[in-house]
Each structure stands twice: as structure tokens, then as C-alpha cells.
Amino acid sequence: MADVKKTKKVRGRVPMPHQDAAKRARNFEEVALGYSREQAIIEAERCLQCKKPLCQKGCPVEIDIKGFILAICDNDLRGAHDIIRKTNSLPAVCGRVCPQETQCEGMCILGKKYEPVAIGRLERYVADTFAAESACEDVTDLNTCALEREDLKVACIGAGPSSLTVAGYLAGRGIKVDVFEALHEPGGVLIYGIPEFRLPKSVVARELSGLKELGVTFKCNWVGGKTITIQDLLEEGYNAIFIGVGAGLPRFLNIPGENLVGVFSANEYLTRVNLGRAYDFPNYDTPAYYARRVAVLGAGNVAMDSARTALRMGAEEVSIIYRRTEGEMPARHEEVKHAIEEGVKIRCLCGPSAFHGDEQGRLKGLIIQKMALGDPDESGRCRPVCLDGETEQFPCDMAIIAVGTRPNPVLLEATPDLGLNKWGYVKVDPETGETSIPNVFAGGDIVTGAATVISAMGAGRKAAREIAKRLL
Fold first, then answer.
1. 412-419 LR contacts (CB < 8 Å, sep 24+)
2. Residue 210: enclosing H or E segment and its boundaries?
3. Which of 69, 92, 113, 315 is the most buried (most CB within 10 A)?
4. Do residue 143 and residue 208 come from a single domain?
5. Final residue of a domain: which of 131, 166, 186?
6. pLDDT digits (tens, 9 = 90+) for 342-380
7. Domain with 43 in it: what CATH number?
8. What is the pLDDT of residues 149-173, one digit of tens each?
9. What are the E-state strand segments in 337-381?
10. What is the extent of the structural domain holding 89?
11. What is the tally of structural domains in the chain?
12. Per the confidence metrics, is the pTM higher than 0.85?
């Protein structure tokens, strides 16, 4: 490979090709276009190949980052793919949506003085470019799959990232896996939450197709706690159960006018557009609520997804309303940057105190309370403090509330023996992922609260290893 140590200080990070901002703001095609082979090798050669790679410690599933990047430098795509797949079953997804800047890239030694290696972009390159010879090779770290054991079967409730990880790990080792999903399509947040322009549905479909070829069965329209319960599954002879239902119950603001027509939770809005394919009208006839002026309340990744989606759905003006300053925004820097490039406006140090509507009960606007930053709160960020008497009218005909989620109680209420913490999330053994019910495991947002895709996958992998250890 090239002498990377001599080129480190003179070569900057290879930019990711993107759609032009003005063009992409009105279509749902993927924004980031991916590296070419030449770009990937040039970027990979920036890696210092540290003796003690901190980047791997920053990765929730501990990918051998140094190893797969070295394989790219040597133009060994198969080797790079095999290394990634040893711990990450969804690299094409993670390369697109994981917050690498605070995880692997945030720990990159090169980033102490220069720009860190673009680890996520390289991971995406490998996942998108490598052509697997079998479903097993594409989904697991194994070149050949074990013969299916007829005496073993595991159920996953929910079909999001944590359950998909469990399914891939176990199916590749010969254990039959049935995945029960409440919605009409598997994928969880990868399908209903993350927009097409960030994570194309075709990428998720490719991962799901590989799992199906491995023998994983997806049973849609099965609601955990209603259509099927944990007790039902245990009585049906499943050797272990994994709960990966996420935390999809939206939080609201509890301010006047929140029930007006035109006020949506981000969950509802994004599910309607993404899962219902409202973005692909008239090929899909899912109804969408069209608005001219949109306010998005919140400043996390879900808020950015909502704002950028509203713009693509035809809004003339979209504004993020946030109580703190831009520096405190929890969204990924890249997502904020893309939103601003596309024309989304950012209104900081202000928050809604009420919605108001017309005689027909339709939203007409917000009353905005101006804020200042006070002392830090428990999150470490400065607490927003209301400025008495300083309010303004903000006209809008749609508002999207993106201020977080809570655990959905349906499955939890149907399983009284399941231990919960004081916030209502499932308690698990941190080493195994096992719940208070023997051989029932859980992972992802239903355990941690809203977090990243890859942290959910890490929890799924931990549980899957324990299940395999007990069953095989």
C-alpha cells in the first residue's frame, strides 16, 4: 500500500459527491452519491494504521476499522467486506446514517490535528460495491451457512435494526428465526423513519432479501402484545425471544392548540411519507398533508428529516424552531448543513407556547416565546430560560413536533412479568441482554430510549451471541 504517513499532512479528506442542493431539495433521490473506487482508495490511504486504533473503541459494534481500511488500500474488496461483516450486519445502512463524527471518526487520531478519516463513507463504499456470492456471505461473517436445525427456533418481536441483527447472526448459524412485525412492511425505523434521500428503500430491501434467503421468516401485521404475546410464543415452543420493538410513541408539548388540524408528530408525518410512500405520488396514493409554511419543533436528526421532507413535499418555506442555539443542536452536523443548504431556515432561542387556528380548527400559526441560555442542566447543555413578555406570532399552516419518543406500552402492558426501569423501558442484563423473563431478551430503543441504529445493532448482536451460546 502507499506510504500513508508521508501523505497525511498534505492530503485533505476526500469530499463526498452530492446532488446539487437546489436540485435535491425538490426530489427524494439520495443526497450523498458515494465514493468511486479511486476516491475510496485515496481516502483509505489517509489512515495512519495506528498500533492501538481508538476508532475501533468508538464503534458500538467494534468493527476492525484499521483492518478493513488496509484492505481497501490493497484493493481487496472481499477482504474489507469480510472484516466489516464479522461484527456489522448492516454496513450499507450504517455507512449512511450512523453518527460517525461522534463515534469512530470522533476517536480518529488523525482528527486531532487534521480531518479524521471518512470511515463511514468507506464502509458505505465497501457495502455498496462488494458483490457477495451467497446470501450467507452477504448477511453474516460466514462464507457458508450452517444447516438449519429443525429443533431450534427463535422469535423476534419487531423488525428494526436490533432484530435484523439477531436474525442474521442466528440464521447464519442454522437457527430458525421468525420475525413478527406490527406494520405491513419489515425494517422498522429504517423504513418508516429515515427518508429515502438519506437511506434508499432499495438498500434496506437488499438487506432484507439476504435475510429471507437465509431462511428468516417475516410475519407482518402482527402486533406484539395484541396479535401475539410473549407467553403465546413461549407456549408455541420458541427456544428464545428477542424484543426489538423500539420506542415509537411520540412525545408532545402539552401546550394549547396541539389538537388543531395541521399539527403532526414527526412519527406520524414521516411514517405517512416514508412507509406509505407519499413521496412517490401518484405511484402510491397515500394521502399527504400539503402546506405552504411549515414549522418543525425540535433540532435532532428526526427534526432535520422532517424539515427536509416537508421541503421536498412542496412546502414553500420550512423553519426549525429550537429553544437553544445552533451549537447545542443534537442533530448530526452534516444533516444540519444539508438542511441549511437546501433552504431550511433555523430559528434559535425560541420555542412554541401555543398553537392557534381558524374557525374550522385548522392551524394558522404559533405563538413563539423568546429564550436565553441559562445554567447547564442534567444533559450538560445550557438550560433555555424564557424571556418574560417577549413573544411573537409565527404564521404557519403545518407544525411537526419532533421532541423525542417514549416506549409504546402495548407489549409492555401485556407482559406484566417484564421488568421495567423508572422511565418505562425494559431492564436487561447488560452483559447478555436478557430480561427478567428467562430466555427473553431485549435491545435497542425499547431498552435505552431513542438512540442510534448501530447502538441498537450492537445490543442485538450481544443478545444473539448469548442465545447462540445457549442453544448450540
1. 412/225, 413/225, 414/224, 414/225, 414/226, 414/229, 414/230, 415/225, 415/229, 415/230, 415/231, 418/230
2. helix 201-213
3. 69
4. yes
5. 131
6. 999 999 999 999 999 999 999 999 999 999 999 888 777
7. 1.10.1060.10
8. 889 999 999 999 999 999 999 998 9
9. 345-347, 350-357, 363-376
10. 4-131
11. 3
12. yes
